[in-house]
From TrEMBL, chain B:
PANTHER family associated with the record: NADH DEHYDROGENASE [UBIQUINONE] 1 BETA SUBCOMPLEX SUBUNIT 8, MITOCHONDRIAL, NADH-UBIQUINONE OXIDOREDUCTASE ASHI SUBUNIT
Designated name of the protein: NADH dehydrogenase [ubiquinone] 1 beta subcomplex subunit 8, mitochondrial
Organism annotation: Clavelina lepadiformis (Light-bulb sea squirt)
Transmembrane spans: 149-168
Alphabetically ordered keywords of this record: Membrane, Transmembrane, Transmembrane helix
Amino acid sequence: MHLFYLLQILTRVCSIRYSVRMGPGISRYSDINAEPLQNKQIYEKFEDHTRPVREMKVTSEEMDRARVPRERRDYCAHLWLGYLKCKREWFPELSRCDGVLHDYKHCNVDDIKHNMMEYERTKRLMARERKAMAESMAED
Amino acid sequence: MSMLRGGHALMKRVLSLSKPDRHVSLSVIFRRYGSDEVPPNYDMVHHDGKNQVQPLELDEPLTPEKRAELAAKYNLRPEDYVPMNDKWMTLGDYPKLPEENCLEKDPYYDWDDPALRRNWGEPIMFDMDQYNALTGVDTRPQIFTRGQMWKILLSFVVPCLFLFYLGAKYPSFLPRAPKQYPEYYPGDEKRESYNDYDFFVKRGLNAQYRERKEVTNYTFANSPWGGPLP
């Protein structure tokens, strides 16, 4: 049990992310019903299929062969596999792989930015919907 | 430099050490570097027979005469003499001296050997190397005792680790949508469930939870905000 929490601390240092989302930084909401938080149903409701698809540069089979763990099977996996390959080539001179790791970390940061933009987009669409509902109720 | 000037005479004296019939002591060679005149045979010590360490029976009580005799042998007072007989390894009549480092002795006294803080003829501890000024453990009293030091250390470290634990459990960041993966595993939801107590089920190791499905996600490329990823 305690190893689980220790693992959380270590993995935060090593730039690995989880599938579990912890609470956001807002402790007091102006209106908690206006926040989508982690509800997947809300995100699926406002999904826009006309947007371009997010492409994977590595197939599932390749990730299986490399035995990539669940946490790293995301849209930055191609860079992670590149880092593993570099490590395998250059061990023990691992400082040569710092450039590859730098790109992977930037990809992770971009992924976080993408998730933040998704959150804000969903929140704005919810607000628009509630406003439309309120106007239609006021008309009646 | 003066050593090189007197090199020939020095060499003769050093080489003469290897000749056993000529009696030379080190004090003769280094006499010019010492301010005190050491007595003859200062470092030529020869013990034999009764002067060496003798075995001492554990069962026999120590009579006052025997005690005085052994104390004189080791240059101790009879009331100070305690043989090392109660150790797991008896050392005969060798005396038990207080287990204090040389550094605890007075530094301003004119010892014969100031480095080890010892006078000539003083008995040497059996564990001398452990309580030596140069190689031994420092037993001088410190500001804090061991118990106090542990308390001070833990009273800082334990709250610090507790705060790390809280920081890991309740992190604070700006709100973001759940992370997007290209594959969907039903076992992910099982892992975070609180209703399952069976670890096999909770870890999602059943076959039905291991089948994965593909998921399509979308980007912000065409939006007015642009997107970090293409």
